[in-house]
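[Backbone geometry]
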Amino acid sequence: MKVVRRGFTLIEVLIVVVIVAVLAAVVLPRFGNQRGRAETAEAISVASAIHGALLQYEDANEAFPAALDGRDEIVAELGISYTDANFGWTFETDDAGLVTATHTDSLGPITGTMTLNAAGVWSGTGDYDPATGKYWPTLN
């Protein structure tokens, strides 16, 4: 008499679970910092837009505007619009054309800043330091 086997044995199921766990352990760490990288990319985009508006202002007025602190002043003076404090980023400028993006986590401490000077050179501190920052992207 022939026995027909239906389904999987416990050993087969355990082997599949172990294989899936090993694959997950290898793949998941690669996606761990994607949100932080996306937040940083958005801040770079906004800072670049503000920088471009500052350069246009300087070209038209032969001087940069006085320091602009926060979204309302930047929007009013430069005529650009953006969403401020997305993912904890705030922006400000100074009278030398420097744009500073400051990141604050949900509990309040500053985790770092990115700056873009009038010549288009990036620098940063904390998590956004070009030399050691974990979120520092490759910038031209």
About this structure: The chain has three helices and four strands.
